[in-house]
Amino acid sequence: MRFRGPTILVCLGFLSCVHADLKLGFYDNSCPKAEKLILDFVGEHIPNAPTMAASLLRMHFHDCFVRGCDGSVLINSTGTNQAEKAATPNQTLRGFDFVDRLKSVVEEECPGIVSCADILALAARDAVGVIGGPFWRVPTGRRDGLISNSSEALSEIPAPTSNLSSLQTSFANRGLNAADLVLLSGAHTIGVAHCESFSDRLYNFTGNGDQDPSLDGFYATNLKKNKCRDATDETTLVEMDPGSFRT
């Protein structure tokens, strides 16, 4: 499956709708090497762990859907506050260490200049490009948020079981339309999922030990035989769109 041009446009639209005061090249004077440092770091490490591209893009999406793209998903919980990281939708996020390492690289060049929110936005873009996806221009100048609540993440991030109506409402609340929903959903093609997240469709769709009839029969049989061999598998990863890393 090939990435298509509209994906670039929707990503730009998504970013602009949550941060209207951003601009391209925000760090040109204060930290001119910032974007190249991020691109070089991503380009060095993502080829060795291509699934991290999907992880960074997912983290960026989860960040943007709660309080805008402010990096609040990166904040740790404290003794008095459960941060976004603790929310159920974010407990399977990967890449926090990657972002921390990248932040250290940028900080060494320009201490206290580039926000974590911008680093995440740029890293997600660059990671997608490194594995063969599209490139889109990312306006920068985000300010890191100081508020991070697990309850907000739980209520704001769309659930994998959400129906079309609720998804459209959720996206509309952020200035996004049905086309944006379809295109952003298409970003899952570069991702992976644990068997447990869809095993009910293979083994117990209606609670009677049956298979989801909408699944392609050949594909479902292949999954049962070679990947998700039983309904209790919690560790095996499956490509969302098999072969998409190479096409």
TrEMBL record:
Q: Where is the signal peptide?
A: 1-20
State the needed cofactors, names only.
Ca(2+); heme b
Q: For binding substrate, which residues are annotated in this chain's numbering?
A: P158
Which residues does the UniProt record annotate as the domain Plant heme peroxidase family profile?
Answer: 21-247
CDD domains in the cross-refs: secretory_peroxidase (cd00693)
Annotated heme b binding sites: H188
The molecule here is called: Peroxidase 1
Which organism was this protein described from?
Ensete ventricosum
